[in-house]
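Morning!

This is the sequence you dropped in the shared folder:
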Amino acid sequence: MMSQKPRRPTLQDVADLVGITKMTVSRYLKDPALVSAAVQEKIAVALDTLGYIPNRAPDLLSNAKSKAIGVLLPSLTNQVFAEVIRGIESVTEPAGYQTMLAHYGYSSEVEQERIASLLSYHVDGLILSESYHTERTLRMIQTAGIPVIEVMDSRSPVVEQAVGFDNAAASYAMTELMLQKGYRRIVYLGARMDVRTRLKMEGYAAAMQAHGLEPLTMTTDAASSFSLGAKLLSEARMRYPDMDGVICTNDDLAVGAIFECQRQNIAVPGEIGVAGFHGHDIGQAMVPKLASVITPREAIGRVAAEQLLARINGVALTEPVIDLGFELSAGQSI
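The structure's back. Tokens below.
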């Protein structure tokens, strides 16, 4: 049996907490400038405290299933999440559910805004691409009382349920593979520096240290791309002239690093070994074939959707964490 859905805070609840009229709260929600600065601050605190969710759906439908689920994506250009969506929709479409996609650019504050918007339309469940959220986001999720699943990470603490793999273990395994092949001055190339990238760096560093070797890094907060991979490879060679390998946080950086090696007539893997992460098609089709961690992105989306719809339909949560594992492809680049 599912637990009773908690009651959503109302405008009257907010008004009572602040000690003002419901109409004043309504004016604030339409345009904060319509109320005084002092009242604005008090209402904002009350909304945050209660986890208030605006209601954009008709009242008649507020207690009915919307037949829609919200999906939060950090990037609209990253192939990883395109394949996760494919897996989700392979399950939701036959079941008659629509996906409402929202993009938050790796920002927890923007994620908070997008989740508030999705919840205001009474989506029946949420699939999130992050494992760490603002306190207000967590309060809104608790208030909404709908199933939530986080994807792409099985290591971090979960809100309710996660479907993914261990990013740190995967990176550790790829680093071990390169070490077994004789590489010693391996540099980690990282971008975005989100939670998953930091977990991968943690696995890389642990493997290096286990062999008595110094972890070497070259990182940036910029978005991943082939050109960024080329740039980081050149900068790494200047900083660590004796480097003999790179492990990249994704295949975009790794492919760009190989392109830059080819431009500079640096033999791969003769002079430098290059490894990526996720096993994208371009890396598996290029020459040399890219060594990469192969991750089950489409399967993650499919399993997450299956679990979410089951819980929406009353099936009790039995597996808080579902780890779908990973594979290593040695390719020809290491």
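Headline: The chain is about 45% helix and 15% strand.

More detail when I'm at my desk.
O.
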